[in-house]
Write a structure and sequence with these properties.
Blueprint: H1 31-38, H2 40-74, E1 81-84, E2 97-100, H3 104-135, H4 140-167, H5 195-210, H6 225-228, H7 239-245, H8 256-264, E3 269-276, H9 281-307, E4 315-322, E5 326-328, E6 336-338, H10 340-357, E7 367-371, E8 374-380, E9 386-392, H11 401-418, H12 425-433, E10 435-440, E11 444-446, H13 448-460, E12 464-474, H14 478-501, E13 511-515, H15 516-526, H16 533-540, H17 543-553, E14 557-569, H18 574-596
Parallel strand pairs: 3-4, 3-10, 4-9, 12-14
Antiparallel strand pairs: 1-2, 5-6, 7-8, 8-9, 10-13, 11-14, 12-13
Helix pairs in contact: 2-4, 4-7, 9-10, 11-15, 15-17, 16-18, 17-18
Length: 597
């Protein structure tokens, strides 16, 4: 198959404004989907077990909280109590039982216990809520059912059984509690008091009806505490009722920072940007499969947004920057032709679309353009989003991944936003604030849910300049095993800890989302040409770490979203691993030194 490029209307422009296109999406092993299908049953059982465990943890925690409160307050009463001595024995027909009154010192001790158990945590939450007011502007079954059960049914049942057990105990028999600890013993229940049971059931029913909205939460993913609850602190004495009744009914929260966005009705724009070079056919198939699945999901979201405006809708475009895309056929014929890797990618688009939709799908031939950097191919995917492949000619533009990133960042933020004449400066700032670039490698495998998690995290925290997901290495052999352990330590410990401080030192370029306005503030620094040895280590050997460092120095947060998963191929031989670490280790050292000094 041969493609001939024809000049577009923009080809003859005087180009300072050359077309530049986005950063690489890496792909994953095609066998991963088969493995996922194989373990679907195990995943369902695991989710069910987690749901059951969560149910009992919440239930038992609420019961222990209530029982502890009743137990501690029982020792604040100085009325005479029946005391059974541990060494009591039968003598002259009498048991070792005594009636005592707690001393003032013991009552004070129990009061201090009550203060430290309940009021000290409450003070901490009060301080946290004060911080929210000063510095911030204005699981269904396993969570909701235990809150309802613990309040009346479980707690009363637990207390009745405990009291009944203690009332029938003699000093020479086994007791639930030590003999020097006790619960208040209520009066004997009379048949005339049966109305209390009906009153309790009525109150339980009204409580459940009032808080039934917790079964169908409508909050956004990863919503903060102040957006989930009316009060950003809890009541330690009635924690289960507080968690249920304090939950917002309509999840409406006035966020002053987002008022301007809502007035302008700005829909977020997401650019998925990937780079390729000499990827294998399997890597191309895996990457394209992720793109087309995301396109399908976006189509469903667009249709749903038409009927329900509360759906988190966003605009979507996918771009691939292909490095070294042309080759010369002979010494005499200097006309550049697409190389075999580009042709393989073109042939794979229809195959992947047919595989995803489980039907024979033939997309329209891509529209071809001549550009100052080489050429451009543009498809319309089945979900009506664009897939644009930018073919770089190394004789016209700089090669390597960093310069591909600079190209597509200038194209998106410069050509698509700054050069627009139909927007004023305020609108351009708003558009840049709501433009997001998802940078991925050519062998990455991701799902729409992970992309939405990253996008949601960026939308809820306007100070966040970049956020990365959790990457799982895929491969076979001892070197792949080592990297799986290394990645687990890196993400579970290092990035999770760095995320607390808001400064993840390295957001890997294989699966990271950037805010457009944040990239604008570092783009001039990012395009510096390497002229010294240390520049090559900082700029070219670890461009993802260099971007993270620049964002941190500009005052932006750099975060980590553990719930956004992706998979990437890792080196399986010593030579590949050595070449990778030969770039990573000097880059890490140089960038951390630059950041600290």
């Amino acid at each position: 198959m041969t493609y001939h490029f024809h000049s577009s209307n923009q080809a003859g422009r005087n180009d300072d404004k050359w077309d530049v296109f986005e950063d690489p999406l890496e792909i994953l092993d095609t066998d991963s989907d088969q493995g996922n299908d194989k373990w679907k049953g195990v995943q369902k059982v695991t989710k069910l077990l987690i749901c059951i465990i969560t149910f009992f943890v919440v239930l038992i925690g609420c019961v222990i909280c209530k029982a502890s409160l009743l137990f501690v307050t029982a020792h604040l009463n100085r009325k005479p109590k029946l005391y059974c001595h541990e060494n009591g024995s039968v003598a002259d027909g009498e048991l070792g039982e005594f009636v005592i009154t707690l001393s003032e010192e013991e009552v004070v001790t129990w009061m201090w216990i009550l203060v430290f158990i309940y009021f000290v945590p409450q003070l901490a939450t009060f301080l946290r809520s004060s911080r929210i007011l000063l510095f911030k502007k204005c699981l269904r079954i396993s969570y909701a059912i235990p809150l309802h059960l613990s309040g009346v049914v479980t707690t009363l049942g637990f207390l009745i059984l405990s009291l009944e057990n203690n009332n029938n105990i003699k000093c020479d028999s086994l007791q639930t509690f030590p003999s020097y600890l006790f619960l208040n013993n209520p009066n004997v229940f009379e048949i005339e008091d049966i109305w209390l049971i009906f009153m309790g059931l009525f109150l339980l029913g009204s409580y459940i009806m009032t808080t039934c909205h917790i079964y169908i939460p409508q909050n956004k993913v990863l919503a903060s505490t102040e957006k989930l609850y009316v009060r950003p602190y809890y009541d330690p004495f009635l924690i289960d009722q507080d968690l249920a009744m304090n939950r917002r009914l309509y999840n409406k929260f006035l966020d002053i920072e987002n008022v301007s966005n809502s007035k302008e009705n700005v829909v977020p724009m997401l650019y998925v940007c990937g780079t390729m070079w000499h990827e294998t056919k399997d890597e191309m198939l895996t990457f394209l499969k992720s793109i087309i699945i995301l396109d399908e999901h976006h189509c469903l979201t667009r249709i749903g947004n038409y009927f329900n405006k509360s759906i988190n809708y966003y605009r979507l475009e996918s771009h691939i920057v292909f490095d070294d895309a042309f080759t010369k056929t002979s010494q005499r014929n200097q006309e550049a032709q697409m190389n075999d890797f580009v042709k393989e990618l073109i042939n794979s688009v229809d195959n992947v679309a047919s595989l995803v939709y489980n039907n024979d799908i033939k997309l329209k031939d891509p529209v071809k353009y001549v550009t100052p950097y080489g050429g451009k191919l543009e498809w319309i995917l089945p979900g009506k989003t664009k897939l644009v492949v930018h073919l770089k000619d190394n004789n016209k533009v700089r090669s390597r991944k960093r310069w591909s990133q600079v190209m597509y960042m200038y194209y998106i933020l410069g050509h698509r936003i700054i050069e627009r004449n139909d927007l004023n400066n305020t609108q351009k700032e708003l558009e840049a604030e709501n433009t997001y670039i998802l940078s991925v490698d050519g062998d990455i495998h991701f799902r729409p849910k992970g992309v939405e998690m990253l996008l949601e995290q960026m939308k809820r925290d306007k100070t966040l300049g970049a956020a990365c997901g959790r990457v799982h290495p895929v491969g076979k052999g001892i070197f792949a095993w080592y990297q799986k352990f290394e990645y687990a330590i890196s993400y579970w410990l290092y990035k999770a800890s760095e995320n607390i401080t808001g400064c993840v030192l390295c957001c890997p370029g294989c699966f990271t989302i950037y805010r457009g306005s944040a990239i604008m503030s570092i783009l001039k620094k990012l395009k510096i040409r390497s002229s010294k040895a240390v520049h090559f280590m900082k700029f070219d050997h670890g461009e993802d770490r260099w971007i993270s460092v620049l964002l941190a120095l500009c005052g932006y947060k750099v975060g980590y979203v553990a719930s956004a998963d992706a998979c990437t191929n890792c080196p399986e031989s010593f030579g590949e691993l050595y070449n990778q670490r030969r770039r990573w280790i000097p880059s890490t050292t140089a960038n951390i030194t630059y950041l600290t000094l």
